[in-house]
């Protein structure tokens, strides 16, 4: 039974499993842990831990004779696949210097994974690599991954490992287990069926170090009962940091597995001897209180706000950015924009302030402001401007300029419906080529993409500036793009799945969720409107950025860059998605993601040097990007060969 659906949809249900010892009575393991214990699944060894291939008697024909496992008939196929995660024998060491042991380990790994595949298990837990080298282990797993059905392999990784070499306990340093994971998955070429299962003990690393894992492919967190504290009434509970970590796992769809013995006064019934349990004990599973506690943490999480719930399906889903200049937007795209009340509230504030600055109170009844909404869509900025006029008592004449003929149809209907005929003139034209009958005091536009200028607002507004009076106001008055390096293995793997370079040289609009933001953002390109008179500055840009990886993060993988924008609409009224200043409750823009063809590993405290270009040609605008240090990457999207925005 899931930990509860908290009233949300099915995608919000979370499951909790339990790690068990080997038993040759699988039906009993299932009944005890799922019926008595109320766990959702077991992580159970498939083979007797004393089994060693080299010790198996050869038959008269010289071939090794199994069985190395019990019969598949003891559970139904659906029980195997829904309720059992196979636990590969933990004794195996594929990098052992003892050759017999190493070969036994290889044989066992292959046999057990083949058996798990035969049972159609959804996942198998691989033991942590032992020692410092894992090359042979990774080689065997990589071979198996090449033709594995769709079973997932979870590599067990302890979140922290005390360094055995340190001189004494007080000076004990922690070995960064991320490095082990990183070596292993690099050797397996970031295979999408290989993930990490993190072992959680009582010690936790720094927040930045932990944060990295949320950009990695982590499927499970194995919470050892040793990491629980005992509350005043003798019940198991977790420290605040552990609680926050578990909540974060829930938020990232990471399954929880309880492991270990019950060591708390209120929880202790002999954990292992469930064959001989009494009738009273049959009502009790030794780890029941731990499960209940985890369930309680899940239940007390704040419900997702409605908008977040709506956006669940978009999490980490790569989309091509809109091309509103080259293409005509569809009705449903306009509808989505128009639902974003916060965006129009900010525009109305900005227009009101600009109007008040432009016309003093004493002239309000005699002067009329000419305001042009350029790229009016179906009219929400026209409405916001008229509301600003009402709010400030300033008289207004509006031109609504729109190049999408379909949106113009709706604009006409809107003007008629609202009785705005005397105030609003609709112009069906591209603002870059329109011959305006008079000049504007205020130009209002929203031509912004997730990266600010990526929907060609600069080029469009250059055209529109011809009909802005000297001293006139543009809303927005400026916008700036931002980037930050991210670990985002899911995004990287989704790009990689296309198996071509061009997808790696494309920027994607995406609601980034499973990612670790490795440093604060830095600004990239700024555009200001109107451009100063006689400013012949082109819209090409080049920026070199230096990011410093925090010292306490540990090493991390950079899969690409998350991009955002912030726009100054007018004076102190801004609108944007840059995380540190993002406009609350605004949902019109997801972030943008610039991938890297080869992820780059960065060390704590090191510098990451990144170059970004905005390039302009007669027919298109495009970005190029690269990493210069610590190791140079190819320049992505040279000449806009893979991704560009049409003029
Ligand atoms: C992002 S939408 C915003 C629409 C509307 N202002 C809103 O806030 O819902 C941008 C609009 O500008 C229009 N547009 C883009 N470039 C334009 C151009 N050069 N001339 C006129 N309209 C343009 C698009 O067709 C689209 O309707």
Automatic annotation (TrEMBL):
GO molecular function: protein-arginine N-methyltransferase activity
Family matches, as InterPro entries: Arg_MeTrfase (IPR025799), Arg_MeTrfase_PRMT5 (IPR007857), PRMT5 (IPR035075), PRMT5_C (IPR035248), PRMT5_TIM (IPR035247), SAM-dependent_MTases_sf (IPR029063)
Listed Gene3D superfamilies: Divalent-metal-dependent TIM barrel enzymes (3.20.20.150), Hnrnp arginine n-methyltransferase1 (2.70.160.11), Vaccinia Virus protein VP39 (3.40.50.150)
Limits of the PRMT5 arginine-N-methyltransferase domain: 306-475
Pfam families in alphabetical order: PRMT5 (PF05185), PRMT5_C (PF17286), PRMT5_TIM (PF17285)
GO biological process: methylation; regulation of DNA-templated transcription
GO cellular component labels: cytosol; nucleus
Subcellular location: Cytoplasm
Keyword Transferase: yes
Name the UniProt record assigns to this protein: Protein arginine N-methyltransferase
Name of the gene this protein is made from: 11431985
